Amino acid sequence: MFTIITGAQFGDEGKGKIVDLMSGDYDLVVRFQGGDNAGHTVKVGEDVYKLHLIPSGFLLDSRVLIGPGTVLNPEVLAQEMDMLAEGGIVLTPEKLGVDAKTSIIMPYHVELDGLKESRRTEKIGTTKRGIGFAYIDKVARDEIRMADLADPERLKRRLSELASSKEAAIRELDGDPSIVTREELVNRYLGLGRRLAPYITDVSYEINKALEKGRNVLAEGAQGTHLDVIHGTQKFVTSSSTVAGSACANLGVGPTKVTEVLGIVKAYITRVGEGPLPTELTDETGRKIQQVGREFGTTTGRARRCGWFDLPLLRKAIYLNGYTSLALTKLDVLSQLDPVRVCVSYELDGRIIDYPPEGTAELAGCRPVYEDLPGWESDLTGVRSFDDLPGNAQKYILYLEKKMGVPITYVSVGPAREQTFRR
């Protein structure tokens, strides 16, 4: 079985928790795109793990892999491994693998990212972690790969080949070009290469051999559908393709191998940074959702913008990903709100439309058309089954399911593993 999981909104939907919950049924859990600009929080009992690169399946018996479609900051990976080791979780090369073709985020990528964002008159909201510039180098064939990092002579040779162009780019943005070949940084990366060399693997081969043997593979995406570099709200998007189809291309697995595509969606919607959010709430209701839902970014700590559930955006996410099922998270956050509103269409230039317009400026001009549903007073955090939910909470789930035309198979009412149940 080959299952792909993606976020159906703008990221932060709770993918890490769902992956953690499901990973006991999977032999391999694989990250297929993005970098440490994404973050996920996994809570097990009293232990909370905030991660950016390592897939959530590390807590159970799954082998976790980082695929070649990602861009990897080796310092961040080492820090996460050290953090887990302090908690008694040691990730050996038998537990964790990184593809040899994975692009490495170098210090000059981080420098260029910060310098470029500071120059923009209209900010994108980048995390300034070098993600976009590492992907630029991948496309330009100027990348440094994991295999290069683990080979001291090859790494030095690649840096020598790239140094002049990187120094010129940094100098043009009034930065310090010495960061490209600074001895201290080069030696640090050589050390990281030595440490991570035993973890190098061929992810495509591992996955395909596992599927041949009847084993189960779970592919985990980062960010969310509407941050996709092609199909998202350009230019307020990430630097990689976040939709389910990119899992096949990025991991080297044929699309005929896909069994299931699971979308993760919040019971409302959030967005970090800039870009259109048609149902955004800037009033007391929005602030309440933000506080109750603890809507602050794992990676940046920035407050997330909050809004009511947006069906037009979900319709597009369903088309882009081909979801076979959905997981609805953070239903508990909507308790004590009455009514609970759902955006069913938009008003744009005097017309009613039920699907997002192609242009980002047009989406920003859309005004939500709502249907109101009755709320519920009950605290849901102790609920462990659909039948135990208040009647109006059940009706909300069934309403969304009918409107989306895709079954909601998981419901989450809190951050802990036991607070997510299967219908």
TrEMBL record:
Mg(2+) binds at D12, G39. Binds 1 Mg(2+) ion per subunit. Its cofactor is Mg(2+). IMP binds at D12, E13, G14, K15, N37, A38, G39, H40, T127, R141, Q223, T238, R302. GTP binds at residues 11-17, 39-41, 304, 330-332, 412-414. Pathway: Purine metabolism; AMP biosynthesis via de novo pathway; AMP from IMP: step 1/2. Substrate binds at T298, T299, T300, G301, R302, A303, R304. The keyword DNA damage does not apply. It is found in: Cytoplasm. SMART domains: Adenylsucc_synt. Plays an important role in the de novo pathway of purine nucleotide biosynthesis. Catalyzes the first committed step in the biosynthesis of AMP from IMP. This is Adenylosuccinate synthetase. It comes from Methanolobus chelungpuianus.
